[in-house]
Write a structure and sequence with these properties.
By secondary structure, the chain is of the alpha/beta class. The chain folds into two domains: 2-174, 3-Layer(aba) Sandwich (Rossmann fold), CATH 3.40.50; 181-214. 45% of the residues lie in helices and 15% in strands. The protein has a five-stranded parallel β-sheet, sandwiched between helices. Helix 4 links the parallel strand 4 (93-99) and strand 5 (125-132). The radius of gyration is 21 Å and the shape is elongated. The model has no long low-confidence stretch (mean pLDDT 92).
């Protein structure tokens, strides 16, 4: 199988998305006959070229970071370039990889639904979406993130051997789905301390009372 891999990270140089893709491609290539081509998509001309290459590809993996619950603007531009192909991609396999800093998978679930819908209206065979949080320092310290990299490698290996994603494997890799209860309690304590030490001190410095800090001038 020939796989066209699109790295939609807008960052120049080495980036977290690239690290995951490198390991995915390593696993994919273990099956004899498989070939993967990596394409960087981080400027306007590349968006158009990626759309043209997408049309002729047998299988495509589109990867990008999640920024504040949204895809990078360049990835959105690329998707808009695919409009002429709506309903015309039958037989083409397409999957996605989304990585970000928060640990929990739930942050990417709304985007996952959108990506599945996009594959449907293109008439592609939707492989699924690889979701992985906790990747904020991946490119800076690869040695400390072996487990994350190994997971990407294993998913790539499965895809290379079977031609599809294993949803159970994707769910295991994406875990945890939500934040643990004890972590929420700990975060609440940390926020209270932060509010007391930093924000209340900042308000006092600027002559703002505690009562005034709860003002809702546009809500009255």
């Amino acid at each position: 199988m020939r796989l066209f891999i699109i790295n939609g990270s807008p960052k120049p140089g080495k980036n977290n998305t690239e690290v995951l893709l490198k390991n995915f491609a390593r696993g994919f290539a273990e099956t004899p006959g498989n070939e993967a081509e990596m394409f960087r998509m981080n400027h306007e001309e590349a968006y158009r070229e990626a759309a043209q290459r997408f049309e002729g590809a047998e299988a495509v993996l589109i990867a990008f970071p999640l920024y504040s619950y949204a895809m990078p603007a360049g990835v959105k531009m690329f998707f808009e370039e695919l409009e002429p192909l709506l309903g015309k991609c039958r037989g083409k396999k397409v999957g996605f990889l989304v990585q970000y800093g928060f640990a929990e998978a739930i942050h990417a679930r709304p985007l996952e639904a959108y990506l599945g819908h996009l594959a449907t209206i293109l008439d592609c065979q939707y492989l699924g979406t690889i979701i992985k949080g906790g990747c904020d320092s991946l490119s800076k310290n690869e040695k400390a993130n072996r487990k994350i990299q190994q997971g990407a490698y294993e998913i790539g290996k499965t895809f290379g051997a079977t031609g599809g994603f294993d949803q159970k494997q994707l769910d295991t890799y994406a875990a945890p789905e939500v934040q643990k209860k004890q972590n929420r309690l700990l975060l609440g304590i940390v926020l209270k301390i932060l509010n007391k030490i930093y924000w209340e001190a900042s308000m006092k410095k600027n002559g703002v009372t505690r009562e005034e800090s709860f003002a809702r001038p546009y809500g009255d």
